[in-house]
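Hi support team,

I'm opening this ticket because the web form for multi-chain structure prediction keeps timing out on my end. I have pasted the exact lines I submitted so you can reproduce it. The total is 210 residues across two entries, so I didn't expect it to be a heavy job. Is there a limit I'm missing, or should I split the entries? Thanks in advance, R.K.
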Amino acid sequence: MSNIASTPKPPYYAVIFTSVRTACDNGYSKTANRMIELAEQQPGYLGAESARENIGITVSYWADLESIKNWKANTEHLQAQRNGHKLWYESFKVRIVKVERDYGM
Amino acid sequence: MSNIASTPKPPYYAVIFTSVRTACDNGYSKTANRMIELAEQQPGYLGAESARENIGITVSYWADLESIKNWKANTEHLQAQRNGHKLWYESFKVRIVKVERDYGM
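Hello R.K., no limit was hit. The queue was backed up. Here is the completed structure from your submission:
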């Protein structure tokens, strides 16, 4: 999660998840790690990048919209989302995006 | 930069800039702040989000691709990009994306 993701030639898709945490851990760290592990097993998963200071930004990369939809509907992930709403996030924003172009060094 | 950006109803565009810093400051912090200030003045700028741990992730939001192209070509920004390549970044990746959908809490 803490490296620049190696992604294929565009187009592909991404989910930009930006969040402000509450002060409450209550299983957060354990679940966050489990969600990474679980995401990596999903069809269409291409990689992810993550950093947190005042806000947290996690960008996960996916082959297509279908893969994103399936990941959102994953049973274990749904439970984590519910706990996120209730316990772990003060506020958050999810943006579903299409990566059209990339370059780097 | 450190809050969740208030963005309009999609579609709009974004630049996901992921980077690994070198140990060298050499004007980095000053330039980073100036680039935020300068970006905010550009036509089509909608907001930005930023966090750094092992890697840095900055997502800037834009009304259209034309605005992103103009920002990339801004003279002062071009100089910052050159210094970024030479001095400040071990590696980086830029992804130009179209935001198709968003939701949040």
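A quick check on our side: The longest helix of chain A spans residues 75-88. Let us know if the file doesn't open in your viewer.
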